[in-house]
Amino acid sequence: MWNVSDWKDYELLDTSDGERLERWGNVILIRPDPQIIWKDVKKHELWNHYHARYVRSQKGGGQWDIKSLPENLPVNLLNTGWTIGYRDLTFQVRPTGFKHTGVFPEQAVNWNFITEKIKTANRKISVLNLFAYTGGATLAAASAGANVCHVDASKGIVSWAKENIALSKLEQVPVRFLVDDCKKFLEREIRRGNKYDALIMDPPSYGRGPSGEIWKLEDDINDLILLASQVMSDDPLFFLVNSYTTGLSASTVGYLLQLHIKSKFNGNVSADEIGIPVTVTGGILPAGSSARWEQS
User: Fold this and answer.
1) Sign of CA dihedral 284, 286, 291, 292
2) In this structure, which CATH number among 3.30.300.20, 2.30.110.10, 2.60.40.1180, 3.30.1050.10 belongs to the domain 2-77?
């Protein structure tokens, strides 16, 4: 399993009974996680001293239960958010109505990979980041000196990514932000003849495009990777796919990279689960999977 252990501003303190106890800077959150099926004793004292907890509704969705907040944070915490840092990157954390915060800490293991590959390439790298969300991978690539094209179907999420670029003081790095359906964007890039040295994609399990297009990962990922292979440059650096879809294993996505990328460019494919260390138990909580193709 790939996991990252050099966070300072984030910590997974404990897990039990379908929930995570987390520290985001100096804010303690409790959030649901369907993978936490164990019901052991809640060992950490902060289970009873959290600042906000996401409570699911029996009708679907849920809401945040706000307790007392740290003195340096505003009362309207859910609207204004706060910042955390990872290495030289800064992120705006903002609890949303879907339990997420705008940052997936486990992705730091992929940010490290992206940064290292670009910095050691010894040439200018162009990166296409699809389903780019609030821009963690975009920030990692930009901070390493790459030119980045950031594509996501949500206008609000793209605006959030722009905030993160500004917070990380990367405004001078060439980053092109686009609100678009990723599959249609790829089809247009193929017609235009545009090429990229590195491809990153983190597609949702389900979703809709800007015009209501329905997206289901198991049905579309093969065609998506095949399309993406056609916008790779003649000397590509890497291709990274991340997935949170339960029925889509790392090995399956790795096999797709073998079929569509390695067969075309040689290189190496690796795939594994990604995880987050749990402070109290010392174990690793699985948090999705990733597959990577990289140049030999």
Assistant:
1) negative
2) 2.60.40.1180
